[in-house]
Amino acid sequence: MDKISSIFGSLVFNDAVMKERLPKDIYKALKRNMEEGTNLSLEVANTVATAMKNWALEKGATHFTHWFQPMTGITAEKHDSFLTPTGDGGVIMEFSGKELIKGEPDASSFPSGGIRATFEARGYTNWDPSSFAFIKEHTLCIPTAFCSYHGEALDKKTPLLRSMEALNIQALRVLRLFGQYEVQRVVSTIGAEQEYFLINKDLFDKRKDLIYCGRTLFGAKPPKNQELDDHYFGAIKPRVSAYMEELDEELWKLGIYVKTEHNEVAPSQHELAPVFTTSNIATDQNQMTMELMKKVASNHGLVCLLHEKPFAGINGSGKHVNWSLSTSTGENLLKPGKNPGSNLRFLLFLCAVIKAVDEYQDLLRISVASAGNDHRLGGNEAPPAIISMFIGEDLEALLNAIERGEDYTENQDRTMNMGISVLSQFKRDTTDRNRTSPFAFTGNKFEFRMPGSGASIACPSYMLNVTVAESLRQFADILEQSKDMEASLKTLIKHTVAKHKRIIFNGNNYAEEWIAMAESRGLLNLKSTVDALPLFTSEKNLRLLKQHGIFTEVEVRARQEILLREYCNVLNIEALTMTDMANRSILPAVSAYIKTLSDTALGKKELGLEEKACELEKEWITNLSSISQSLYRAVHELDNALIEVNALEDLFATAEYYSKIVLPVMREIRIAADTLETMTASDSWPFPAYGELLFSV
Ligand code: ADP
Ligand code: MG
Fold first, then answer.
1. What is the CATH number of the domain that holds 586?
2. Which of 164, 319, 442, 445 has the most ligand 1 atoms within 8 A of CB, as the residue to mutate?
3. CB-CB neighbours of 26 under 10 Å
């Protein structure tokens, strides 16, 4: 057996293991649950628990944990041992169905947005049988959802599971109208391409900004950046290859099939792409991937940066969420087929996404909003904060023809003349992607490019699921009343295109003109997290989220609060790190360097050189002093701003203050400090410069 197949999935309680170890009827019940969302009895749970435990013990596990995804964005676990005393001084290894199904971690230190304070501090974890259990360092990890005593979601998985259910219900209604009774379930599928930076750990350790904030707060532009485009798909360096090789193996063991790994545009930036799976499993796998990326890096003397914008002036890192819909019979509902013009089902699902993205631009923007991603959206490579869709010229022409009521199915020649439809042409267009679009149709799926590299993909996933579920619900409501399906479908598609085509933009999203054009189309441009988050609780959004059972109003408000708080906390930490670095490292270093320069001048005088010979040092010192003074003052201003912002009570006002007052002062500080860096001898600068960080691996 080759290496991959011998280790692939070896640490996962996956389908093959279940099939081998569970009695037939139990296996079938579990599969039905995974595929159709049916309930599981305690009897099934008990049998599964025993099989899981025996399997885990054979793999060397001693503990189990309910693995969950609290609102911190990372995963949490509380380990319990399988060991149970027998009363006669011995032990047996036990694990019951009850322990598998439900856990009660001490939840008080996880963010809850005020939900727990009003009820009880207790939180529960509930087994999610639709994702696979796995082993991590002697611990059997059971994927679970985390909720409060009263069932409110306190995590990222619960709304995702709820949204998958909502999408399934509405998609099935639509498929029934096409006579597809054989389909039992429709799921959203995701492949999350992950970008990241790798830098040397010894350099990382010398920078407080990287240690505390995950990104650089200072750093002058190096002489060379990414302008030569020589890193993209360039040869991978041996150390990086060794890292990728080990990471691949660790991921394969967890059943995560990583397909391509290549260099990205920026120096030291790379990308990893797994093969897609259901959005729930993809989300779990992406969390494990991020954890392993960091862990494996430390084995190679490297640090993996997952921040959305670790370096100013250089491409940020995103996580492209490739999203599609798949039926239990194995069909991709966004696959256009040979002749998309006559594929009414494809056109209807395409329209459902177009309508969803247009009507819920705000929720999609919110789903990727964070202090870190604010630096990236609208930046050099990443999509701007305006949401629009790329569908390619052929599809756009096709939709336009539909809107005009032109014949697009019978007359194949005509459609060809219009540049529409035949497969070869269609493919060429869709694969020749518009890299600037935040939401691109790429042949048989959409690629949402706004999510940040460090964040969980749960939120963009459930927002896509629920907004598309709502389009499908409205479509099904109309079509179920229809007497002439084909005619109604065509009318519906036509109306949807007419109403929502403003969201389609195949041009360059980075062009200045687009901003004005988008505004004239009435599209939203929510530049920052603080602009976006208030819309979470708009009437329209609350209605949508409630109607499909994703969130109660209490849950939405809690989430909004958590996100705002996180935004404020991140900025507070960054601001404090900045003042610390400026006051305790940069200013003293510049002072010391001024001393060196003045010593040089004095030395020249001692040698009897003329005043003129010291002009260089004088001018240098004058400039350094004046810029240091600006820096010193700006730091003082930041200190005062922090005192003021900490006195504010209202959370929205606090976040607004950070965005409108604190951030601009931080920018000022950075400009002064970066200028000082370019004027100070490199061996006198207190921490590694951009050039070293980016080009030394
Ligand atoms: P490329 O972008 O190089 O053409 P692919 O299009 O095959 O490569 O895949 C890019 C990413 O999209 C991969 O992570 C892949 O698994 C994912 N992907 C492919 N098909 C789907 C799908 N139907 N649903 C969700 N993700 C998909
Ligand atoms: Mg991509």
1. 1.20.120.1560
2. 445
3. 20
